[in-house]
Structures are given as structure tokens and as C-alpha cells.
User: Fold these one by one.
Assistant:
Number 1:
Amino acid sequence: QQQVKQSPQSLIVQKGGISIINCAYENTAFDYFPWYQQFPGKGPALLIAIRPDVSEKKEGRFTISFNKSAKQFSLHIMDSQPGDSATYFCAGDPYSGSARQLTFGSGTQLTVLP
Amino acid sequence: GAGVSQTPSNKVTEKGKYVELRCDPISGHTALYWYRQSLGQGPEFLIYFQGTGAADDSGLPNDRFFAVRPEGSVSTLKIQRTERGDSAVYLCASSSPDRGIYGYTFGSGTRLTVV
């Protein structure tokens, strides 16, 4: 059962543009919604995370928008740079006690053209 | 080391063979997780250790897969009678309860190819 649906599968943006990636979730037990960035040959690295009691979180050029009633959240990358070219994954984290078993979306391959 | 270390980085094996994949977590991290990432997909949870015990192994696809963490630090994922469908990147992550999601760190993975 796919509990986190991510779109688009791939995205091409011009340098300086805004990249937007969307995710929808089903599991209302998710307590954290992190976004990960993955470069080829590397493991996913945390970019930014939001809790469901917050509608927006911004860290530098990265912003998460969260809509709890619609069970959707999105990542906005402002002023996109070629170095942002990577695969991005959203995830849901049903934090319970000490366990964090993440459920990932299928990923978005972002290409930022110079 | 400062990060999660996984060895080998690449492993090619023949169908039917046995393989072991190793994960060295960040020192002091009590929780350790294994994920499998198939080509073009997000990581999928396999198993979670809290200390030495497997607290949740619900993600292991079948009984050919097994993992241990005998001293509460290094973990080994073991795959018996490998099949071509086992080809994937196997990721390990470790975490510390006091840092929440921001302390959850992945290794670079082991790329397993079954020929």
C-alpha cells in the first residue's frame, strides 16, 4: 500500500526559477513530514521537516507548505540552482516512542538548467 | 567516523548465493534501520533495531532476509539464496532519540546486483 504519493516524477526548471514538488498522504498517524535530497551514489539527506500543527516552514530557499485537512504537503525551492539538481523524496514519519519508520514517496528527479 | 558507514559499497553476486551487508551506525545511536531502495523508487522500510533486539521486522519481504545487531552497534543484513529481484540499494540509517528527525542519518548504501 502506497501511503505517500509524490508528483511530478521529474521536473526541469531554469536557474533562478521556483521548483514545486507535491505529496499526498493517507496515514493520519504520521507525526512528522520530512523532505530528503539524494544525489547519485549517496544516501538521502534531510532537507527540512514539518509537523502537522504548522502550515508552513521556511529554511533558507526551502519552504514546506502543509495542508492537514487535504492531507497534502509540498516543497518549494526558491531561486533554484544547478547544484539543487538531485532526487527529492517526501516522507511520513509515524513517530512512536523511539521508532522512526519512514514511509517515502516515489521521488522527484529535479534538473535545474544553468 | 562521523557518519553511518556501509560496506561494501557495491556487491555483485550470482543468483542463489548468500550475501552479508554491513552497517556501522553513528556512535551512540541506539536505533538502527534498514531500508531497500529499488531503481527509481523511494526507500522502503525493512527492519528496525532498538539496541540489540529487532523491534520491528515487518518490512522484511520473506524469510530469506535476516538481520542481526549482536552488540547493539554494528548490524549485518543477511540474504540467503539471492534472487535477481533482490537487486537494489540497501540503505542503513541510525538515530538518536534526543535529536528527533534531525538526528536520523542515512549511510550511502550498498548497491547489490544479483546476476
Number 2:
Amino acid sequence: GEDVEQSLFLSVREGDSSVINCTYTDSSSTYLYWYKQEPGAGLQLLTYIFSNMDMKQDQRLTVLLNKKDKHLSLRIADTQTGDSAIYFCAEGGATNKLIFGTGTLLAVQP
Amino acid sequence: GAVVSQHPSWVICKSGTSVKIECRSLDFQATTMFWYRQFPKQSLMLMATSNEGSKATYEQGVEKDKFLINHASLTLSTLTVTSAHPEDSSFYICSAREPPGLADINEQFFGPGTRLTVL
């Protein structure tokens, strides 16, 4: 089956780093994605990583992929209150479909 | 970036009525559109994949006759919830995908969602 698991909640202080974790089961995924959802809104693609990469850095965002353990993480450096949202990892393969994780609510305390 | 709109943003209807939700790609042609359903504090569940000019492909457990999908043009897909009941109340989100290209990362562009409440 295709199950993508995330921890439900993460609370950090403003200025700290946040690390959101994700585990997936479909080893045939071509790309893995991180999406951000603000309250009552759709999803915004933050970043993605190709399955043959280990790491990708994009400004404050760092994505780490451990394909052996099927583990994906998103690190947000210098977390700001505007980063408060729900973060979804997603995996995609040849079928065009995205399988979303359970979502992690990130709360940033001022 | 590519923009996807949905209309309406929220709707309240009586049980037994039908509700149509529109999804439009504003600045690109979407050969494929997707419809998701999201319950409070839960993830997005794919309901169906819609390709322009052909019948939608529904995920297991999604009733075709209950959730009618039409993708009549490259910029518009509609989802009609027929004979809506309170258990159909949810947040419905569409996404759209451009035709595959050389640098294709299979990106989907998401609409802002439609909150449906059935009384």
C-alpha cells in the first residue's frame, strides 16, 4: 500500500530551526515534495527533491532524503511566525498521482 | 507562477440538493486536473483524476454517480456533488497539471479550496 506518515504537531520558538519528518512506503516514487497549507487555503509547493538525490537546499529550506529508510525531512532555518501552517509531504511517481502525508501542524511561538 | 481558481470559495446547501464547484486554470492549459477532499485536521484524499475530453478516473471508494466530474476544456473542470448529505460536508480542493515537458517535475498547482456545508 501507499502510506505516508508524519508527526501531527511541532512547536518551535521564533528564530529556531524546525525539522518536519515524513516516512513513505512506495520506493518507486520519482519525486518527493513538501507543500504548505495555510488556514482555509489550498496548498503551496515549497520544494521538491528527485529520488536520486540525498539533499537539496533552497534558501531557508533543506530537504534530506534517506531512500534506504524511506525517510524524508524538511528543515526550516530561522523559523518565523509566518511559517506557521500545516506541512504535507507527498510522493509522486509515474502515475501522475500524488500521495499526501498526514500533515504536520507547525506552530511558531513568538 | 501558475494560478488555479475555484468557485465558490464556500457554499451552504440543504440536504438533497446538488452543488457544482468549478476549478479553472487561469494562465495555463491543464491537460489533467485532480479533485481532492480534505476533512478537518486530516490529509488530502484524492477523489478522481480528470483528463480533458475523457471520463474521469475515480479512486476506489468514490462514487461516480455521487461526484460527477466534467473536464470539458483545457482550463475548466467541474465537480458536482449530487443529492448532497451532511456527510458530504468537507473542504474540496482541485489541482491542475500542465502538459508534461522536458523539465517536468509532475507539479500540481492547487486551487484555494471550496468549503461545502450541507445542512
